[in-house]
Design brief:
binds zinc ion; 8 helices; metal-binding; binds D-xylitol-5-phosphate; alpha/beta
């Protein structure tokens, strides 16, 4: 079964509760994009927003840390997340970071920027629940999907791991089918859900294609 996680970055921040409640029965969870203005050239939101949202829904919270030195914040994010994903490019002692995430009872993921090869994950793969392949340069919603992503998914598949392969950036009804065929099973979808006139219809359309 393919999983869909709307990114709240594309939702209406003046009315997040309404946007989340509107789609919550049709999604597998929500993707939380945390940006620090250092790892990526943008600042999004942090603990107060996550803590407020945690109170209004029991859905799975998939937290994507686009921050430097993520180790300093794992414990606090674990209290408001079901899964924490850190960037390969932002960590020095990845095995230690992943162990910390597990210690705090969260699923653990590693995200790769478009230029980072999947082969670098060889030794850490057995410890991961998911790999988040960035199909845009992280930092902003609404960007164009990078076409070399398909090949990257195939290469990760060839590494013979059961890890969940999640795709983030520019996912929409036109590419989701090809992404599934390449081997991806989970999708972060921002604009193609929340920037449409009917988010539930958009989600259904993507599920129907598959
Ligand atoms: C980009 C974020 C994405 C983003 C996806 O840095 O990691 O999760 O919100 O948004 P869309 O689907 O609009 O590309
Ligand atoms: Zn993300």
């Amino acid at each position: 079964m393919v999983k869909i996680f709307p990114s709240i970055l594309a939702a209406n921040f003046a009315n997040l509760e309404k946007d989340l409640k509107n789609v919550e029965n049709n999604v597998d969870g929500f993707h939380m994009d945390i940006m620090d203005g250092r790892f990526v050239p943008n600042i999004s939101f942090g603990f107060p927003v996550l803590e407020s949202l945690r109170k209004i829904t029991n859905k799975y919270f998939d937290t994507h840390l686009m921050i430097v030195e993520p180790d300093n914040y794992i414990e606090r994010f674990s209290k408001v997340s079901d899964s924490i994903t850190v960037h390969y490019e932002a960590t020095t002692h990845l095995h230690r970071t992943i162990s910390q995430i597990k210690k705090f009872d969260c699923e653990a993921g590693v995200s790769l920027n478009p230029h980072t090869p999947v082969s670098l994950l060889e030794e850490i793969l057995p410890y991961l629940d998911k790999v988040l392949i960035m199909s845009v340069n992280p930092g902003f919603g609404g960007q164009k999907f990078i076409e070399t992503t398909y090949n990257k998914i195939r290469k990760l598949k060839d590494m013979n791991s059961n890890v969940e392969i999640m795709i983030d950036g520019g996912v929409n009804p036109n590419n989701i089918d090809k992404l599934v065929k390449a081997g991806a099973s989970s999708f972060v979808v921002g604009s193609a859900v929340f920037k449409t006139s009917d988010p539930n219809k958009a989600i259904k359309e993507m599920r129907d294609i598959l």
